[in-house]
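Bit of a strange request maybe. I'm writing a small parser for structure token strings and I need a real example to test against, not something I typed by hand. Could someone generate the tokens for this chain?
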Amino acid sequence: MRLLLAMSDATRAEKLATLLYSRWEDWWIELCTTGPQAVELLDRGAYDLLLLGTGRAGDRQVLSWLEAGGLCSPPRVLRLDDTEGISSACADRTVPVTATPEQLCALLEALAKKPLPHLALQMQRRLEPVVEAFLDELNMPAALKGRRYAAWLLLRLTTSRASEREAAGEWYRLCAGAHGTTPGAVERCLRVAVESVFTQGSLRAIERCFGATVDPEKGKPTNRVFLIKAAEHLRSLLDGHPLAEQQRDAPQPCSAHQRVNDTADGGGLPAEEIGDQVELEHAHQRPVDGTDNDQCQRDLIKHGFSLLF
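Reply from user aminoacidic:
Good idea to test on real output. This should exercise your parser:
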């Protein structure tokens, strides 16, 4: 869990960091004492949490920068109230400046479990057309229910890096709740949509967006890998550093396609693991509650779309 302690009282910040490390060793903490330093650090790296207490002028500068959309994947913000009352919609929680290190520690641990920061909800509205354009570029069919689920999950993952650490089953559960269906239906429909991209989608777009050369028949990634790689690409686009630009001059293999090996040094998109793959012939199976039917998805994949190169 990456935390930025932006506090004018450096001694207090160090004590808080020591306490956090003693309670949970998975913290990665960085300290600064002024608003400009906080903005610079936030702009350079991704943080899950921000404790803001640099004084009125410094806090105002950081909050204004965050509210202006300075980050695609913003942190959860815990702000120390200096009694002057700086109103901000981006703060997830406000506490008195007199709060003890133990109280701050407990609040930070609670915020670390919050699904999404306030700022992420604002960013998602700006991100929606970018996600749709990205899925269009991959040639993921708009008629597939799995595309709606992919778009919803990408909005969540792109604006909250912490969500990437959740299990895929938790993603499906949340998506199912938002769409009135079952987690199993979300997983199956999403699998169909992902397979459609890597079987009958745009290979050039796959290479541009994912920075890898994929054999459509053998190199299909799992749902989880597809979503995480796609979220990384979307963040790079919004940060002004498109992954496609980074890959443009990269050496290309001689053959048109190759199987991606996730154990190789270059990383890339892993092929399906046994047990992760959902065969297309099973995509028509109905969920337990009977609210979904994937037969039409299978038919669309089988008959409705041509392979683009």
